[in-house]
Please model this.
Amino acid sequence: MAMTLLARGTPLASSREQLRTLGATPGCGPFQQRMAAAGLAPLTATGIEVFQINVGKFCNQTCRHCHVDAGPERTEQMSRETAQLCMRALAATDIPTVDITGGAPELNENFRWLVEQARALGRRVMDRCNLTVLLLKPQADLADFLAQHQVEIVASLPYFRSTQTDAQRGDKTFAKSIEALQLLNRLGYGREGSHLVLNLVHNPVGAFLPPRQEALEAQFRRELWRQHQIVFNHLYTITNMPISRFLDFLIDSGNYETYMQRLANAFNPAAAAALMCRHTISIGWDGTLYDCDFNQMLDLPVRAPAPRHVRDFDPAQLNHRRIVMANHCYGCTAGAGSSCGGATAQ
Model:
């Protein structure tokens, strides 16, 4: 039976309340114990390969599954001072990838500066794009800017049909997303030999795990070409995390305990060993350091003695830090695993 997602604008529980809810789930034991039983506790970082910058919560959309609780009414935005601290920290390392996210990261006034600075340092830059931002009149040159700087685009597209996409991301979002993808294709994105990478992201529309990534990618590739002549490089499947708006939806729809048990029952040690937090550092809009973007939304900064702000960035302490875990981490270890780069295990 189809489910109605949480109405936009519903008040969210605080991060502390969310953690309390996650920690008291019947039938879903503490995540730390499951990791210990798998021989993976304490979980430690293996170095930093991805420097992820969350520039804020301001967005032109209000998606109903959003773990950031982003939207047009949010005012949290990374300042130029904090952006400069990020680039100073990056320049002192050889971290190869910069992953810029939000909100709609492109709407932060420092987004283009961050792209230019990171590319000048020779780093691969990824932009987590909601696609519709490319069609805003003030952003008329945005797609050209991204192509000029060879920014890899990671674009949200829940499904290749409008019904599911609009249910998750808002009315008429699918049509706008298709228009944006066609624009990117015209610039060379997703086309063989162009060196302009276009990857898509699928989040399930409801309280279930994503399907097998390889099979879904083939289906997306076939249907997007057949219906809209759209090409892309890869598809990432990402599990909806039981935090923020999606947690409220689970509770309000009566699916919370079932979903958490589903995640816990699907715990995969191979996915757990490949958790993205082991090779990623996440920087919040105010410069606070986190093990991942999900911990950031639950106000769980990196564990001391590692520095907790980008102004004190110290690779020696951060590269092998102990990872902060809680029950929401079941979302990244279920089935084939989930990360900002899609499935992590077979």
User: Anything to note?
Assistant: Residues 1-11 have pLDDT under 50 and may be disordered. The two ends are 29 Å apart (CA to CA). Residues 46-253+276-324 form a domain with the TIM Barrel fold (CATH 3.20.20.70).
